[in-house]
TrEMBL record:
Residues 9-54 form the SpoVT-AbrB domain. It comes from Halolamina pelagica. InterPro entries: PhoU, PhoU-like_sf, PhoU_dom, SpoVT-AbrB_dom. This is Phosphate uptake regulator. PANTHER family: PHOSPHATE REGULATORY PROTEIN-LIKE PROTEIN (PTHR42930:SF6), PHOSPHATE-SPECIFIC TRANSPORT SYSTEM ACCESSORY PROTEIN PHOU (PTHR42930). GO terms for molecular function: DNA binding. It holds the Pfam family MazE_antitoxin.
């Protein structure tokens, strides 16, 4: 329910406005409470001043095992807790191992305390020192190199290179968790956005694009796995067609990311529209490769068809980033 208040003048020069009582009560705001004002364009956001330096949270892990427990650790991390307590009547050895492994896979976390019924982990990084721009750019570099190397491993039959691509997927996942954590912090607190020096809308654009890059890395990993299943290398004509398809998809991703971070709106729109147009051309090229695969052994054709699909999907994800860049460059209402 929207409430309105009339601005009044007191003392001849001071503007004052009352706060809705229900909101004040629900947020523990009373006489003497300090509050912060955050200007955002023509809006003014009011928040109570938090006295706690670090946000603490706890989770009952009784009955949680394996992947379910690992996801729970990651959820608490992305949610923005600085100190996380995992508690149960008795934490099993397997649970300890899972919590420790999940902690090691996340940026900045380390185990602070362990007892029979409790494990405490803490984020050692200062959120104000993190850069969502740098994290997303690093994701771009890793995901693009993974796609390059996955196609190279396929073309040359290099199993070691394929294995290296698969291992690098963890780096992209780790960075995506960091981006998600930063983005959620900006939703909760205007101060977090101010510390980043970016509007919350831009943080949303970065987070949305990071999700697309994470999917590109997943498909690079899929190509690497498929290349290890394929006996030998593809026929030369198919290999060259796949290289061309990959080159086109990689260009879409690079141009879309360049549009996202472009200084001028005109340049962003030019790059983004070019990327989106090439996605349509890539779909046509993929259909041509599918025709080439019809002459191969069905099992090999199926594996190579999945690789073609992963490359076209990677281009589609680049197209999604381009769409985000267009929205970012559009006039603000």
């Amino acid at each position: 329910m929207v409430e309105t208040r009339k601005v009044q003048v007191t003392g001849g020069s001071t503007f004052t406005v009352s706060i809705p009582k229900d909101w004040a009560t629900g947020n523990d705001v009373g006489a003497g409470t300090r509050v912060e004002f955050h200007p955002e364009g023509d809006s003014l956001i009011l928040t109570p001043v938090s006295e706690a330096e670090r946000t603490e949270g706890s989770l009952d892990v009784a009955g949680l095992e394996g992947e379910e427990l690992r996801r729970a650790v990651m959820t608490m991390y992305v949610s923005g807790f600085d100190v996380i307590s995992f508690e149960a009547d008795r934490i099993t050895t397997d649970q300890r191992r899972t919590i420790r492994q999940a902690t090691q896979s996340l940026v900045g976390l380390e185990v602070l305390e362990e007892t029979a019924d409790r494990m405490v982990v803490r984020d050692l990084l200062d959120s104000s020192e993190l850069s969502i721009h740098n994290a997303v750019d690093r994701m771009r570099l890793i995901a693009s190199s993974m796609l390059d190397d996955a196609v190279e491993a396929l073309a040359t039959g290099d199993g070691d290179l394929a294995a290296d691509v698969i291992q690098r997927d963890d780096d992209v996942d780790r960075l995506y968790m960091v981006v998600s954590r930063i983005f959620r912090a900006t939703l909760r607190s205007p101060t977090a956005a101010e510390e980043l020096g970016l509007p919350r809308e831009v943080c949303f654009d970065y987070h949305s694009s990071a999700r697309q890059l994470e999917r590109v890395a997943d498909h690079a990993t899929k190509i690497a796995h498929l290349s290890r299943e394929l006996e030998g290398t593809p026929p030369e004509e198919v290999t060259e067609s796949l290289r061309e398809l990959h080159g086109a998809a990689a260009t879409v991703i690079e141009d879309a990311m360049a549009a996202l971070v472009a200084d001028g709106n005109d340049e962003a729109i030019r790059l983004a529209n070019g990327a989106r147009e090439r996605v349509q051309e890539i779909d046509a090229s993929a259909r041509e490769i599918d025709e080439l695969l019809r002459d191969l052994d069905p099992a090999r054709a199926q594996l190579l068809g999945l690789i073609v699909d992963s490359l076209t999907r990677s281009a589609d994800y680049g197209g999604n980033v381009a769409e985000t860049a267009l929205q970012k460059a559009a006039p603000t209402p």
